Amino acid sequence: MPGWEGVARLEPVRPQLSIVIPAYNESADIEAAIEAATAFLAQTGTPGEVIVVDDGSTDDTAALTCRFAASQPIVRLLRNGRNRGKGFSVRRGVLEARGDVILFSDADESTPFSEAPKLLAPIAAGAADVVIGSRALRESRLELPQPWMRRVMGWVFRNLVRLLVMRGIRDTQCGFKAFRAAAARETFARQTLEGFAFDVEVLFIARELGYHIVEVPVRWLDSHDSRVHPLRDPVRMFLDLLRIRLRAWRGAYRGAPRS
Questions:
Q1: pLDDT digit string, tens, across residues 210-224
Q2: Run of H or E including 21
């Protein structure tokens, strides 16, 4: 893959690419996700690492990840002491990543790793600091669409994002995003939200800091085992959008990173 030459061997070397996978009770999917991530690194000859952040799971997510880590040194497990939320888990993984580029992906592989070159190429070419997968562009392929209720919720949320926080990004919530390492660290160090609205905050911060964001179309296969509660989480996400707006008015995101 242009710009990503390397040696196709799964051993600890300085990683070019860190793949962060947040996981909460993902025992049904985590093995396939790790296999897909490590296979992508091997097939593209990219020195890398796979970081699974277990968010206080009560199933075998951590044990299954440990099994991989025992035989593949590029796989690392980080464990939260309790369930903290997807935003917390992604931030932790990103800030502990060692790669030149950091990509995070959902454990259910709603966007398959075969789509990763679309995100990595603009960064390798110096054309972007942040590249996000999008389900809302003309070339996007929704091979297994969301149920109608989640589509309605998504439409409402997208319009609230445009009204309250920022315009110009069609899909803030696709769980497939890549960052140049310096941009990731400076952005995530300022992130405060720990729930599902963290994507909006991260993208808002990146834009506030002057990083160039590119949106690219990806394949999407919806997972019906969604962690989003249809009543509780939309309310929380709306309140989180208000928190972003309030912090922006106060200039909080432009200051020094939080400790």
A1: 999 999 999 998 765
A2: strand 17-23
Superfamily of domain 17-148+171-189+205-225: Spore Coat Polysaccharide Biosynthesis Protein SpsA; Chain A (3.90.550.10)
Rounded Cα distance between 64 and 230, Å, is 29
pTM across the whole model = 0.89
- Give the integer Cα–Cα distance in Å for 205 and 207: 5
Using CA atoms in the order 215, 220, 226, 232, what is the torsion angle rounded to 10 degrees? 40
Domain coordinates in residue numbering, the chain: 17-148+171-189+205-225
Indicate if the alpha-carbon torsion angle 233, 185, 53, 131 is positive or negative: positive
Over residues 20-70, the pLDDT tens digits come to 999 999 999 999 999 999 999 999 999 999 999 999 999 999 999 999 999
